[in-house]
Every structure is written in C-alpha cells, then in structure tokens.
Design brief:
The chain is mainly α. Helix content is 76%, strand content 2%. The protein contains 16 helices and 4 strands. The strands form 2 sheets. A two-stranded antiparallel ribbon has the order 1-4.
Length: 449
C-alpha cells in the first residue's frame, strides 16, 4: 500500500508559490487593491511564471482525477484542461479583436501598426507549431537517451534501440485519424477571408466525434507518479475536495493573469521595438506549453515514450479542434455579430504553414511510430521557419512560408504514398476496430521476440 500520509510534494508547493505573485498582481489590478506597477517585460515574466505554475497544478490534478471519473468524462475534462492556458491567452486577444471590430467595423491596426485580429491567431499557430516541431522530437531524443542509459536493466520499452523510433499502441490510431480529419479541413482555411462560425461548427464536430470514439475505450488504471500520485493516494472524499480545490486555484490564477500577460507581451514589443506578433506567437506558448513538454519528457525518461508521445498527440488534436474552433465563437460574442474573425494575408499564410506542418506530422504517424529521422525532420524544418520569422523582413518571410508549406505538403504526400497500406489499416483502426481487439493485438505484438 502506498503511504498516503507522506508530506505534500515540494513540486506541488513550489508550483503554487510561484503562481501567487502574478495571481495577486492580477487580482489587485482588477479589484483596485494596492500593488506595484511593473515594467512591461517584468510584468510579462511574472504573469508568465504564474501561468506556468498554474499549468503544472492543472496537469497533476487532472491526472489524479482519472482515479474517480469515467473514461468518457475524463476525456472531456482532461481535453479542456490540457489547453486551458492556451484558451486563456487566445481568448484575450480574440475578445479584444472583437471589440475593435465592433467599434470600427474592421480590424484597425493599433498605434504600433499591429492588427489585433492577427494577435488572436498568433498564439494558436505558434503553440501548435512548437508542440509538433519541438515537443515531438524532444520526446524521441529523451527516449533514445533513456534507452541507452537503461539498456542493461532489461524490460520492455516503447523505443527501439536499433531504430530509435518511438512507437504507440494501435489504440492511439483514433488520435492520428481525427487529427488527420481536422488537418485536411484546416487546409481550406487559408482560402477564406475569415474564420467563421461554420468553421467552428465543423472543428467542434470533429472533436465531438473524436471524444465519442475514445469514450468507447475501456477505463484503465492510471500510472501516476510524483505530485499526481500523492493526490490520488488521498482517501476518496479528501481526494475529490483536493482535486476540486486545485482546479479552482489553477483556474483563478489563469483568469487573473492571462489578460495581463498578453498586455505585458504587447507593451514589451512596443517598448523594445520587437514585433508584437513574434512575441505573442513564440514567447506566449513557452509559458503555456512548457509544463506539458516537461511532463512528457519525464515520462519518456521513464521508458514510457509511447505514452508520452500519445499525450502530446492528444494535445495537438485538442488544440487543432477545440482551440481553433472556439476562437470564432469568442470573436462573435465580443463583436456582438455573426461576422467571422477576419484573416489578412499574413494570417492566411500562418494558417497554411501550420496546417502543412500538421499534415506532415500525421503522415509520419500513420505507422504509429515516430522515427529519429522523422523527429529530426520535424525539428529542422521548424527551426528554419522559426529563424526566418524573427530575422527576415515580412515580405521575404512570406516567400519562405509559402516555400516551407510546399516542402511540408510534398513530404506528407510522399509519406502517405510510401505507407499507403498502413494508412488504410490505421484509418480503419481509428474509426471502427473495437478497442478490445486493438489492445489484444498490442499484447500479442509485445510478446513477440
């Protein structure tokens, strides 16, 4: 029996402590309480650290919650919590864009020349590309190092010591297939002049179908460690109150800091002469994605790379359906109209690049594995477009974006043709094959020499 009386984990206390300064400053600003006025760069750092702390608390509480709730409900709750920090920042920009649109009848650039509607999508596209271009390769790298470190200990690992590939169970086919559906639809978005409520309905419908499919999977005993294990070991009544309390604390921190974090980034860009779009697209995701990436790397180091990659894959599905789909809803509510979120040329190109990268990522996973070569390709291609986005003039960068999108699409088509047999099987598994059959097939594969 685990010792449920051991002390509160230091990492849980530390996450809460680092979130408190930003939470107080944000709450004090809203409530008119006394608080120091921080310079924009310092304010962005304080609020960003608070969001990181809250995101860790959310992840641990969400993992522990799996002990008490059904598989279907767990899916719905965890999917929402996984992208809550992203929602908070994106909703701030989406709501402001709607207000500007209502006042002016269009998205009028601010004094710094930044289109508020551009910022509404900047964090979303950046977070998606960081997750795939950095997060997925990082899992493969950490897992490969972990296997080399532990190769003398024996046992089963989800990383092949010969190929350096992270493999996932066939039950993860659903994530690959529904990410593919969302990606195929997203490739039509750059052809539009706005992101509409129709797009929201389609993307949310894809997520609903994904949730319905996964709800049929049998419940599994979660493998918890660290802070999440400590929470799960509490007696049931106390555990549920603790999980609920942690959810409330994390949500309050995010709600009180998200708007100030966004303001800090924009004002920092104005003061330092840095493109606000670049700050929102690349710096903001570091605050919201870092806890998830750290947890994924810890799982990979414990030789559970398949689960680690599967978690990041699920997060990508959530972001590419729920997050993108709710942005037009927030904009419509803020602008008190049914008008879609306007897309200028820059935004359409950003959506094209993000969707193209997503399609290439799906093509790599049709075999339910990510090889070291595939991981390196994702990382290198990401670093190229990241470097050009912050170094080249806007007009030149647009040419690079189009070229990079073409590279992603060509590579994706080549992968689909190369693995067309596996593509058919994975699609069938993801849509129709009963989960008990998939689990049986995985067990048989694991026993083969």
């Amino acid at each position: 029996m685990p010792d449920s009386r051991r002390r509160v984990p230091l990492q849980l206390l530390f996450a809460i402590v680092i979130a408190l300064p930003g939470a107080y400053l944000g709450a004090a600003s809203y409530l008119g309480l006394p608080h120091p006025e921080l310079a924009p760069p310092l304010a962005a750092a304080v609020y960003g650290i608070a969001i990181i702390g809250a995101a860790f608390v959310l992840s641990w509480a969400a993992e522990a919650a799996q002990v008490d709730i059904s598989a279907g409900l767990a899916l719905a709750v965890l999917a929402l919590l996984a992208v809550l920090p992203e929602y908070a920042v994106d909703f701030v920009f989406g709501f402001r864009a709607g207000q500007v649109f209502e006042e002016n009848g269009a998205c009028v650039p601010d004094a710094a020349g930044t289109n508020p509607c551009s910022l509404a999508l900047a964090n979303m596209t950046g977070a998606n590309r960081v997750l795939v271009g950095v997060g997925w390769p990082l899992v493969v790298l950490v897992a490969t190092l972990a296997v080399r470190h532990a190769k003398r200990n024996g046992g089963h690992a989800s990383v092949s010591t010969h190929t350096g590939a992270v493999t996932m169970p066939r039950a993860m086919s659903a994530e690959v297939v529904f990410l593919g559906f969302a990606t195929i639809y997203s490739l039509t978005l750059p052809l539009r002049s706005s992101l509409t409520l129709v797009d929201a309905a389609v993307l949310l419908a894809i997520f609903a179908a994904y949730a319905w499919r996964l709800a049929k999977a049998p419940a599994e005993e979660p493998d918890l460690q660290g802070a999440s294990a400590w929470i799960a070991e509490r007696p049931r009544p106390g555990r549920r109150r603790l999980v609920g309390g942690l959810f409330v604390i994390a949500a309050l921190v995010i709600l009180t800091t998200a708007e100030h974090f966004a303001e800090g980034l924009v004002e920092t860009g104005s003061e330092l002469g840095v493109d606000q779009f670049v700050l929102v697209q690349w710096v903001a995701p570091l605050a919201s994605e870092s806890p998830e990436l750290i947890v994924a790397c810890l799982y990979a180091w414990r030789l559970k790379a398949g689960d680690s990659l599967g978690t990041l894959l699920s997060s990508k599905v959530n972001q590419w359906t729920l997050l993108v789909g709710t942005l037009p809803i927030v904009f419509a509510a803020s602008s008190t109209s049914l008008h879609g979120l306007p897309l200028d040329t820059h935004q359409r190109l950003e959506l094209l690049l993000t969707a193209s990268q997503s399609l290439f990522a799906v093509s790599l996973l049709v075999t339910l594995g990510l090889s070291l070569r595939g991981a390196v390709a994702l990382l290198v291609l990401f670093l190229v477009q990241f470097a050009t986005s912050i170094t080249l003039p806007a007009e030149t960068d647009r040419i690079v974006v189009v070229a990079m999108s073409g590279v992603y699409l060509v590579l994706a088509v080549a992968q689909f043709i190369r693995h067309r047999g596996r593509l058919v099987r994975t699609t069938k598994d993801g849509l129709a094959t009963p989960f008990d059959e998939l689990e049986k097939a995985d067990e048989e594969a694991a026993t083969r020499p």
